[in-house]
Structure formats: structure tokens, C-alpha cells
Amino acid sequence: MKNNNVKKLVEISLLIALEVILTRFCSINTAILRIGFGFLPIAIIAMMYGPLSAGVAYAVGDLLGMMIFPNGSYFPGFTLTAFLTGVIYGLVLYKKPKTWGRIILAVCIVCLGMNLCLDAVWLHILMGKGFFALLPTRIFKAVVMIPVQTILIQLVWKNIILKIAKPSEIIA
């Protein structure tokens, strides 16, 4: 039992490090928009370890990324969004079949609910710009990221995770 906890902690830690790298170095950043791939390690954590692990991991990754590689001022609303994103992926995908429909559902909730709406609220609070003025670029991001996230999550799950993990550890 103790070895399983250590293994889980190490795997989640490595995926948090990957999330920080993908978010901070492999993304396109503007003042009001970030298009990146940091969602992928969090979706993997959610599918393998559940909603709470994924939520905490994404919040920790957000905090670590902000402390190590600051990019603007810190705002706790984005950390809340990160936590909720991990929880949503976990609620929809943990211990359930990883079908296209489930993945699309999880990605749509995250992209439309968290990234489009909630992040626009945080940006409105931070920048003072009108909420509706922020929506066109946020809608563009959602339109681009929904198919990208859906395809990448499914491809990584089927072609990498299922091939390296033990069948007893995961539910396909």
C-alpha cells in the first residue's frame, strides 16, 4: 500500500512538472488569451487518479508555474479555475469508459464553462474591460481548443497511457 502511494505521488508530480512546462513554454500567450497544452497532463491525472487529485494537481501546477515563471500578477481566480478544471475532467472521465462522447463532454464543460465564462470574469475583474468585449477572443479560443483537446486527450489515452499502464491500474 505504501509503495502505491509513493508511485501515485511520483507520477502526479511528474505530470504537474509536465503541465508547468507545457503551459509556460509551449503555449501562445497574449494579454487576454493563452492557447496551450497544459490541459493534457491534468486530463491524464483525472482519468487515472480522480477528480480531487486532478484538481489539486492543477492548482499546485498553477501556483508553481506562477512562482517559478511569473507572467504578470497573480490572481487566485485562475487557480480556482484550474482546480475546477481538474475536478471536471475527473468527474466525467475517472473510472468510466473513455469514449469520444465523454471526452467531448468534459472538454466542452471545461472550454465553455471554465475557459470561456469563468476566465472572462477573472479578466474583467483584473483588467476592468467589459465582459462582452472579452468574449470574441475567448470564443475563438474555445472554437479552436475543443477539437484540439478532444483529439489529443483521446490519442494520448489510447496510444500512450493504455500501452504503458498495467490493466489492473486503469479502466479503459
TrEMBL record:
Pfam families: ECF_trnsprt
InterPro entries xref list: ECF_S_folate_fam (IPR030949), ECF_trnsprt_substrate-spec (IPR024529)
KW Transmembrane helix (keyword) present: yes
Keywords on record: Membrane, Transmembrane, Transmembrane helix
Protein's UniProt keywords contain Metal-binding: no
Transmembrane feature ranges: 39-61, 73-94, 103-127, 139-157
Annotated NCBIfam families: ECF_S_folT_fam
Protein name per Swiss-Prot or TrEMBL: Folate family ECF transporter S component
Organism listed in the record: Intestinibacter bartlettii
